[in-house]
Structure formats: structure tokens, C-alpha cells
Amino acid sequence: MYPLILTLHSILRWVVLILAVVAVVRAFIGWFGKKEWTALDNRFGMLLSASMDIQVILGFVLYIFLSPLTTTALQDFGASMSNALLRYWSVEHVLLMVVALILIHVGRATSKVAEEATSKHKRAAIFFGLATLAILIAIPWPFWSYGRPLIRLGF
Question: What is the C-alpha separation between 103 and 90, in angstroms, rounded?
């Protein structure tokens, strides 16, 4: 079960990241180009939100039940804080991803209730942009000491 969930989590990160970049680019173009808010803008926000929800659920399944790293970290949480690898996986990664999830949902909600198109785009650009930044920081890039492969195929 662990390899399957880890593989899905690894692949879905690219879906989330692509949707985030597209949603942010569309929002900035709409904001600064004073464009109308379209059904496609709304759809990208919805897809970003839904894909991030699934990604975080998979991440929590890994975190709570399946990951040997977090299982080890949670056995002695205090000692884990002095180990950079365990601290990253037990605190930093999950915290940044939850922050990104919250930012995405706030961006989606506030852009939906705004009345003017420019305001919708502005709110989406700010919140989705901050979420994308958090995601980029939290991804375990291969060049970091705690990094992981860009795509993990562990079926």
C-alpha cells in the first residue's frame, strides 16, 4: 500500500503544480489586463482546489499511517527536531502544504464572492501565488539533502 500511495502522491504533485501555475498566470493576466472573469478561470481554481485536497489527503495517509520516516519521527518528536531529515518530513513539509491548501481555499472563496472581475483576478493571483510559492518551497527537490526523485514509480 505504501508504494502505491507514495507513487500517487508523487505524480499528483505535478498535476497540482501545473494547475497552480496556470491558475496564477491566468489570474495575473486577468488582473493586470483588466479581463473578465470567465468560467475557465473559475474552473482552474476549482481544479486546483480539488487536486490539492486529494494531494493533502494522500499526504496525511502517508504521514499518519504509512511513512516509515514520520512513524520514526512521531515516536520521539522532541528528538526528531534535532534531525533535519525527520524535522523536514514531520513538520516543515506538512506545515507548508497545509498553509498552501488554506491559501488555495481562501483564494478560491474570496475570488468567488468578489463582485468585480479585476478583484476576482487580484484575489486569485495573490492567494494562488502565495500557495504556489509555499508548494515550491515544500517540494522535496532532488538537490536538497532530504530530496526525493522528481517522479517516484514504486508500484
Answer: 21
